[in-house]
Amino acid sequence: MEKFKAFLKRKDIEISGRRYGIDALGAMAQGLFASLLIGTIISTIGERAGIAFLVAIGGYAKAVTGEAMAIAIGYSLHCPPLVLFSLAAVGHATNTLGGAGGPLAVFLITIVAAEFGKMVSKETKVDIIVTPLITIIVGTGLAMLCAPAIGSAASAVGKAIMWATELQPFLMGIIISVIVGVVLTLPISSAAICAALSLTGLAGGAALAGCCTQMVGFAVMSFKENGLGGLFAQGIGTSMLQMGNIVRNPRIWLPPILASAVTGPIATCVFKLKMNGAAVSSGMGTCGLVGQIGVYTGWLNDIEAGVKAAITAWDWAGLICISFILPAVLTYAIGLVFRKIGWIKENDLKLEL
Description:
Layout: H1 2-10, H2 17-49, H3 52-63, H4 65-76, H5 81-98, H6 102-120, H7 127-167, H8 169-185, H9 190-196, H10 201-221, H11 223-235, H12 243-248, H13 254-270, H14 290-305, H15 313-340
Helix pairs in contact: 2-3, 2-4, 2-9, 2-14, 4-5, 4-6, 5-6, 5-7, 6-7, 6-9, 7-8, 7-10, 8-10, 8-13, 10-11, 10-13, 10-15, 13-15
């Protein structure tokens, strides 16, 4: 057993929640962003502007979603070059076979393929053949055996959540908004989770509300300490910057959490805000305005499909209120109360920017 542990250490194979649940999952979200998400944005701009060149570029970017996710995961697992490059085939096969739940299948199967590839890497004199051979056979073999089932399971869970949200929009609006918002601020990828579950529709709108409330809420609530730099770093960057401060004083997290419990049901019950763009956008919040672009793309998709007549002023009011106005006002107001009762003290929200 000790020899095996030493072998794993030598190969930099670390079986831990941090390595897989934080590093690999976060990398998968970046791979999604660099392919599916940015491709959707480019192609949407091209379609609206009538520029076929951009539509084509966006299509090519979206076509390599599986490969981008797998390579990103491999990079986070510190894979040697031959293993890393071989994961492109694994990602393509897994995402294709996984269907709507492809991202979750890619996440699980790529980890296994990557670690097997690392085990045999540079262990033979014909490494250039053995390493990619093992990586691809293990990965694509698992994809053929398991990806459809994993994809179907992930899709079923996502559909169940979306069905429950349609049935109970108020309660599920609260639950989804709070949970996904909290995940966004934690060092876990909310975008990857939303993508893995194909979380769209009203449920996607609630997820977006929670993410926006965390980001905009922390940005506005901490403006006194962090100024414009902090406002932009958190508001269009990430609320994860506050994790160190949260560890020191968990009470600073309560204002955006409480605010998200309000914005979620308002999104689902009042504005009927739906995320019908890419599911990954549901977990992006205001980061680079990707969440808002996702909603807009969804509107265009609905119009093209004939299920929506046009984009209305009410649609825009809902998106702006849920994304910016309500998160800012509610979180700031609750934060003021917390400051007055001494739960948030001066510099508790200070960032080292």
